[in-house]
Amino acid sequence: MMPALQIDDIHTYYGDSYILQGLSLTVNAGETVAVLGRNGVGKTTLIRSIVGFTPATRGRISYAGDTISGLAPDKVMQRGLALVPQGRRIFRSLTVEETLTIAMRERPAGSTRPAWPVERAYDVFPRLRERRTQRSETLSGGEQQMLVTARALVSNPGLILLDEPTEGLSPRLVKELQGVLRTLHDDGVTLLIVEQRISFALALADRIYLMDKGKVALETTPEQLRGDTELRHRYLGV
Ligand SMILES: Nc1ncnc2c1ncn2[C@@H]1O[C@H](COP(=O)(O)OP(=O)(O)OP(=O)(O)O)[C@@H](O)[C@H]1O
Ligand SMILES: [Mg+2]
Q1: Exposure winner among 27, 70, 201, 204, fewest CB in 10 A?
Q2: What is the rounded CA–CA span in Å between residue 11 and residue 18?
Q3: Distance separating alpha carbons of residues 99 and 69, to the nearest angstrom
Q4: CATH architecture under which domain 3-236 falls
Q5: Nearest Cα to 136, choosing from 124, 148, 125?
Q6: Cα separations (Å) of 70 from 65, 73, 76, 110?
Q7: What is the pLDDT of residues 55-75, one digit of tens each?
Q8: Ligand 1 atom with the shortest distance to the CA of 211
């Protein structure tokens, strides 16, 4: 399989705090990969390092064969990566439709992939179509998560990075999001999902990396993790 995203031995700091301490992983084209780990192990820092918000000081990250470490975030996005950040940050005063239209218009200059029409995003998230004229701040938490996910989709990314997309969602909305991500996977989109919710990762991932103290502790599969209580306890505390 062709690696889409390849991370080789990255080291990332916040000031003097040494967070990622030699992390390596690979996501193959078309794969859904989950990174699981407890609070504070560095999952968001990993995402921030990939996108370039908090660049790694050592190591190399490549996407589709080209080095992206060292590029500014907008240049990274231009290559076809999209981010669904933790905590679903939205522009509260914009409506659903304005949010998606702006996301489409503000795709990184130089993108070679055609944008999605907003209607296609509504086909994936019919509930957003119903709420298209509503201001984002009045959406429920689950609807806001749909909106940030849809906002990532309209740029038609080749790789979507999702940082704890199920945080704060009801079980019903988790199921709904799971269905959407599975559809994207079936459409060939590559997904890297950072999560604490183990059941979500088990349901979606082709492969799983368990993270501990700024490193990958272990690469595993949903089948293996499902059957191994000791492993779940050691790395996830569940
Ligand atoms: N801006 C920052 N400045 C200094 N330290 C930071 C900063 N952001 C995060 N950290 C620290 O880096 C470590 C890793 O944080 P990170 O947000 O990557 O963890 P996480 O695995 O995403 O956790 P969670 O599951 O709670 O989202 C933590 O100890 C955190 O306190
Ligand atoms: Mg985090």
Answers
A1: 70
A2: 8
A3: 29
A4: 3-Layer(aba) Sandwich (3.40)
A5: 148
A6: 15, 9, 9, 18
A7: 999 999 999 999 999 999 999
A8: 21
Q: Which residues, other chains included, contact 91 with Cβ-Cβ below 8 Å and sequence gap of 6+? A: 99, 136
Neighbours of ion ligand 2 (CB under 5 A): 43-44, 86
Q: Are 2 and 12 in contact (CB under 8 A)?
A: no
Global pTM reads: 0.93
The label of the residue with tokens 């989709």 reads 153
pLDDT in tens, 73-112: 999 998 999 999 988 777 888 999 999 999 888 776 666 6
Give the DSSP letter string of 60-114.
EEEETTEE-TTS-HHHHHHTTEEEE-TT----TTSBHHHHHHHHHHTSPTT--SP
Phi/psi at 229 (nearest 5 deg)?
Answer: -60, -40
- Can you tell me the distance from the alpha carbon of 52 to that of 108, in angstroms, rounded to the nearest whole number? 15
| Residue 158 token pair | 């080749």
Structure token pair of residue 159: 């790789």
In this structure, are residues 200 and 35 in contact, taking their beta carbons and an 8 Å threshold?
Answer: no
10, 59 Cβ separation under 8 angstroms: yes
Cα–Cα distance measured from residue 222 to residue 33, given in angstroms and rounded to the nearest whole number: 10
